[in-house]
Structures are given as C-alpha cells and as structure tokens.
Amino acid sequence: MAGKTVRRLLQGNEACAEGALYAGCNFFGGYPITPSTEIAETLSRELPKRGGKWIQMEDEIASIASIVGASIAGAKALTATSGPGLSLKQEVLGYACLTEIPCVLINVMRGGPSTGYPTGPSQADIMQAKWGTHGDHPVITLTPSTVPEIFTETIRAFNLAEKYRTPVFVFYDEILGHMREAVELPEQGVIEVVDRAKPEGKPEDYNPYDTSYEVAPLAPFGKGRRFHITGLNHNDDGFPTNDSTKIDEGNRRIMAKIDNNVSDIESTEEYLMDDAEVIVFAFGSTARSARFAVNRAREKGIKAGLFRPITMWPFPEKALKKAADKAKSIIVPEMNLGQTILEVERVTGHGTIVGLQRVDGEPIHPTEIIELIEKHS
Amino acid sequence: MSDRYELRFSGSGGQGMILAGIVMTEAATIYDDKIAVQSQSYGPESRGGASKAEVIISDGPIDYPKATAIDCMLALTQEAATKYHKDIKDDGILLVDSDEVKDIPTGKFTVYKFPIIETARKELGKEIVANIISLGMITALIGVIKESAVEEAVLSRVPAAFKDLNKKALQIGFEKAKELKANA
Q1: What is the pLDDT of residues A6-55, one digit of tens each?
Q2: CB-CB: which of A7, A292, A367 is closest to B63?
Q3: Which of A26, A99, A122, B74 has minimal Cβ neighbours within 10 Å of its Cβ?
Q4: Smallest Cβ distance to A118: which of B29, B44, B68?
Q5: Which residues 6+ apart lie within 8 Å of A25 measured at CB?
Q6: How high is the ipTM of this complex?
Q7: What residue ranges define each of the domains in chain B, with the CATH number in brackets?
C-alpha cells in the first residue's frame, strides 16, 4: 500500500514517541528522567490531541503500575525511563510478566549505577533487562541503533506486547535518544499494527489464563467480563492456586510462549558477514562505531563484518552461532564492563573473543575497534 | 564533498549551539538533498559549562554519529576553543568569536576571527541571535549546504514575530563570512 510519507528531522526520543503513536499508544504514565524526558514531553503534547491520556505519576513505581492498570483496562500503554527509574520499576515488571499484561517500557541508558552520569551514554542496563525482576520470567528487549529504527522498533515493541501478552522493552543509549536523523513517517496502514486478541464466547465462561491457548485473549477490565488478576501463581480463572501442577504449568507457559516463537521475535542485521573472518558483535550506538570500523578495515583488505542484534532478548543464539563458526575472532565492544560478551561466550564457545569496554560516559571510538580488528585478523 | 563532512558548534550552555546544529541538519536533510546526523554533548547543567553539537553531512549513509576529523568548528568561548579544537583536520577551519577567544588554538587549520556576539548586540540589539549569525558564517565558509536551505530551516523553526530578526542575523552571517574569506 502506497502511503503518503512525511520526512522529518527527529530526535531519537521524538521518533520513539512517534512510533508509539503510530502503534496506537493511548496511555502514557511516567516520571520524566534524563535522557528519556523528550519521550514524555512529546507525548504530553500529542496524546491529548488524539484523545489519549497522559499522566505524570508521583514516582517510577507508580508510573509502571499506572501503565499496567491502563493496559488491563484495554489501553496500549507506555512508560519511559532511564537506569535509576528502571531499578525502581522491577517489582511491577515482574507482576506484568506473571499476570501477562501487555505494555511497553523504553529505557534510555545513561551511566550508572545509581544516579551515575545523567547526560552520558551507557549500555550497562542490558543484563538488568533480562534479570532485573525476580523469578524466571519472559523478556523481550529490542535494541535499535538509528533514529528511524527507534521509530519502527517502538511499533514492533507494541506489536509483540499485544501478540504475546507480555511487557516488551526498547533499550537504547543517550546518544541515540538525543541525536537527530531524518525519519520517513509513513501513513497509517503502511506498517503493520497488531491489536491484542479479543475474547469470544459467553462472558461467564471467560478465563483470563485459558490454557487451551498459547496466549489467552485478554478482556478489557470493566467491560462485560468479570475476572481476577493476582501476582500469585494462579489458575485459568486468575485466582491463586496451591496446586503444584498448575504452578509448574503457569511458570513454564509464560516462558514457552516466548521461547517457542523466537523466530517471530528475533531480528538481526549482518553487515559484510558473508566472508568475514573478524566479526564485531555490537548493538545500539556502539554498532555505528563498529560499522565505521568494519568499513575502514575492509578498505585495508581485512575481511571484517558486523553482527548486530536488533532483538537482544531473546538472544539471537542460532544466528550468532552460525556466523561465529566461520570466524577467526569476535570483537565485542560495549559501553559497560563486559555484559553481552558473556552471552557471546556462552553461545559461540569461540576461542578468540575479545572485549572492548568503556564506562567513562564517552562513546566507543571507531579507531579503538579498528585497532582490535587489525590485531586479531 | 568527502563521504563525511564534519561540523562542530561549540560554546557554553545557553548560547544555542545545539539549536545551530539542529538547524544545519534540518537544512541538509529536509531542505537540501543530503544525509545528515546531529548529536550533542553537554553536562548536567542547562546553562553554563562547555556545550557542543556535532553535525555529520554526507551523500550516503552515516554510521558513527560523532566527529572523528573535523572540517569546520565554531567556538564562541575560550573554554570551548581550548577543549574541543583537537579534532580539527589539518586543512580544516576554525571560526572563533574574537572578543571571547584570545588564546587562539594552534594547528595547521585556518582560523577565522570575528566579533560574533558583539555584532549580534550592536547590529541587531540581541545577543541571542549570535548562534544564527554563526550559522550563516559557517554556511558561507563551508559551501556544502545551500544558503537558501539554511534560511528555510531557520525560518521554519522561529515564531512569526522573530522571522525578520533571524533572517537578518543569517544574512549578516553570510556577508561577514564572505568578507573574511575574501580578505584571508
């Protein structure tokens, strides 16, 4: 379908807000924090114009609680934060995982731990995305690396949240949040938008956790179907259970709905990988430094390539394993003290994996990567 | 034009350096036919402290969004000139405010000196448009983006009541830079 496309210069955070609106987001609950504030700011302007709701809550925990509540009532809900806020939101994120409430959380990464370095970039929350809240729980995390990709990945985040009834994260760093690039904003209908499945049948027969489905339809609260939601392990009807069979079934099911659909959720970019002997594994803005380095290395006759996870969680295990089998070495630059390198080691078992880590609030410079490519080619 | 043309606008927080970068990027990508990326760096304070915006312009996709070898840099304060000049190319350009930057950084690049803030105050009665005069000067010095594209970008960003002021500021910038270039 040929739509009317508008080309605009947007900041990463503005592109995120545009993506949310495109996906049908009609509720934002947040507690503004640098470097994510422009998401809240843009939506505070745009949502009321379109009949949506925008609220600044009293803190981060209330913010995530507000979007979970809004989603239960049928809204497509978003919150945006940075590291300190992400830490505070963990309790309710676990609740959303277990109760299977779709929602989207944007984390614009700044230096940490604690309040750290608000205006500098970081990629040090990437493991918190996976392990932040307690208990085994499903995690989908998308890691765009350009401003146009922040727009499309935010749409995809809403689609995945709706489809799999689970919280979905979009993680990018301060550089991407604040930088500007031209973005093509297509007319509605050009990019697919997914809405959650609606329950059918008699209201009195409705079970919010009907195990005959892989993902049970979620009825909007207060609109004809009465049901119970709890953060305790529960039966199909949503009430707490002590039945070990049901507890086991529920815990496995929320993981399986993601694990069984990895091919639908996974997204990677392989750049100059066909004959690559040195692979750079990088995401977010670091992938842009890596791409620059790979291009320069190629000019020098070194067969370098870039493997970039666009979906970080679930981790692109098969694709990376396949790519790594042919490689002489793997370079893993990241703005933290070695987080995704652990996954690269686990998945590939490769003998030459070299980390490049930076936590001084500055981006990884392409020349740092070029040096390592040359050394390990 | 090489595959990366790199600009850095630097000064102190509140002088509109980031806005200058945004307008240049908008001129390149929306009103001209280039690809451009703008990034910025600043401290936790919103006023004061060294602040910089960087713009990479290209005919093709841009990977690394920050400056690596600068073609042209503006410095409105001594602190910015001292802190940020190191990445300027040998054949690059440094434009400084001559009242503010007394200790001119040394290098193989060409230095242009002009009382930018004073000109904004004297000729337009508003120091606040020093960034727009600077933008005009940079545009004329580098010749990479059409002057008309920069003008469209500036006018699209300012409220109606300030269009005239900004248009004048930009024109002053174009003219002064051409004079500097002619006398160099």
Answers
A1: 999 999 999 999 999 999 999 999 999 999 999 999 999 999 999 999 99
A2: A292
A3: A26
A4: B44
A5: A43, A47, A52, A76, A77, A78, A104, A158
A6: 0.93
A7: 5-183 (3.40.920.10)
